[in-house]
Amino acid sequence: MLYASVRISAILWREPVTPVAGVFWMFVYICMGVVPLAQLTTGASTMLARQVDDATLQAATAVTLLGCFSFDIAYNLRLFRHADRPAPSRTLRSIDTLRVFAAVAIFGGLIYVVQVGGLGVFFASRQEAGQALDQLSPDSGQAIRAIVSAFGSVGCLVALIFYIHVLRLMRHSLNLVDAFLLAALVVMNLIVNNPISNSRYWALSVLFGLIMPLIRFRKSLFNLAIIGGILAAILVFPLSDVTRRKAGTDAVLQADSVWHMISTKDYDQFSMLANTLSFTGDAGFAWGYQFLGPVLFWVPRVIWPTKPLDSGVEVGLWMGSANVNLSSPLWAEAWINFGVPGVVVTLALLGLVSRRFDSGFGAGKVSANAVGYLGVSILAGYMFILLRGSLLQSMSRLMVLALAVACLTAAVNRKSGDKR
Question: Helices marked H in 284-329 — which ranges?
Answer without folding.
Answer: 289-295, 311-319
